[in-house]
Design brief:
The chain has 2 domains: 7-136 and 300-337, NAD(P)-binding Rossmann-like Domain (Rossmann fold); 138-296, Dihydrodipicolinate Reductase, domain 2 (2-Layer Sandwich), CATH 3.30.360. 31% of the residues lie in helices and 27% in strands. The chain has helices at residues 15-26, 46-49, 64-69, 83-95, 115-128, 137-150, 172-177, 184-192, 203-211, 298-315, and strands at residues 7-11, 30-35, 60-61, 74-77, 99-102, 131-134, 155-166, 215-225, 231-233, 238-240, 247-256, 261-269, 278-286, 289-294, 319-320.
């Protein structure tokens, strides 16, 4: 029997990376390396970056090729939000024979928004016998939560989800794709008119796939959010002024051959005092059911879902295998619970 711990490389040592380091250790995974090109982090010990009381003897390295070539079972990618940016990072893992799971929001179901990239990565992963995928908060709360509720419904005509989160919790890459700090003209030019794929666009396809529905069309509306007074953004390191976007709401609507509409709205803005995360699903039909998740801790839930998914991803078929094709994420006991 092989009792060797699973070796995990962390690619990205920012806000969520620091949480994931602790979660990996608490679940008994071996931290095989940490990659980040931030000069303020390179050379520091991973334990220090994660706020642990001890060093781990794992220095953060900017040399991804060197770290990945040392061998690992899987890499956790906490980097960027769009597949156009993530493709080289996924590809590097695949070429080194390392499975990869990413918090990249579009990677949740990129077939809808980046089919060519997904096909290239799928072929590369199969060539090297590894699995690539995306997971995180959306895996459970934008996906499996809705489909489990659907399993208790006699007849559906629509599923509609709403989720909000603080973009300051996730770093500069996510803030950028939400248009944070942009004027109305900049938002129209760089986000709305450019039809940047919002995270909402990836949810209906995931749900349709798991439920065996057939999408016939999908569209999105991107709506900037503003405040009438300055709002401090820790990610931008400045105040966002009135007339500059705090972020946006994105609403994706999909139709299906079966006549069931799937709607997802995500609201990502810089929070003001009193703002809280929310997650809600309404399934319209017989019966109509509404489920609210009160004040979900989206950062911690994202990190825990990714870590709990690791054994399933390693065991999954090679290719870009989205998680609706895997069993639901399951809880892994921590070391002190075994």
């Amino acid at each position: 029997m092989n009792n060797k711990p699973t070796r995990v490389v962390l690619y990205g040592a920012g806000l969520m990376g620091a949480v994931i380091i602790r979660y990996l250790l608490e679940k008994g995974f071996e931290l095989a390396g940490v990659i980040d090109n931030n000069p303020e982090l390179v050379g520091k010990d991973a334990g220090t970056v994660a706020g642990l009381e001890r060093e781990l003897g794992v220095p953060i390295s900017a040399d991804a090729e060197a770290v990945l070539s040392q061998g690992a079972d899987i890499a956790v990618l906490t980097l960027l939000s769009l597949m156009t940016d993530m493709e080289p990072f996924f590809a590097a893992c695949a070429r080194h024979g390392v499975n990869a799971i990413s918090t990249c929001e579009e990677a949740f179901f990129p077939q809808t928004t980046s089919p060519e990239i997904t096909e290239r990565l799928d072929a590369l992963a199969k060539e090297h016998g590894v699995t690539l995928t995306g997971s995180g908060y959306q895996d459970v709360y934008w996906g499996n939560l809705a489909t489990v509720i659907a399993g208790s419904t006699q007849q559906m005509t629509a599923l509609e989800g709403v989720s909000s989160y603080n973009v300051d919790d996730y770093g500069i890459a996510l803030a950028k794709v939400h248009g944070v700090g942009m004027t109305p003209e900049e938002f129209a030019r760089e986000v709305a008119d450019a039809n940047v794929p919002s995270f909402a666009m990836n949810v209906p396809g995931w749900i349709a796939s798991q439920l065996g529905l057939h999408m016939t069309g999908i569209s999105q509306v991107l709506m900037p959010a503003y405040s009438d007074h300055p709002v401090k953004s820790t990610t931008l390191g400045r105040e966002i002024q009135p007339g500059q976007a705090l972020g946006m709401a994105a609403r994706a609507t999909a139709t299906t051959r079966e006549g069931i509409d799937i709607v997802m709205e995500v609201r990502g803005v810089v929070y003001e005092p009193g703002d809280v995360d929310l997650n809600s699903w309404v399934i319209t039909g017989e019966p109509t059911t509404k489920v609210d998740v009160d004040k979900p801790n989206t950062v911690e839930l994202t990190c825990a879902t990714v870590v709990n998914r690791i054994p399933q991803v390693i065991a999954a078929p090679a290719g870009f295998t989205t998680v609706e094709l895997l069993p639901p994420a399951r809880y892994l006991p921590t070391l002190d619970q075994r």
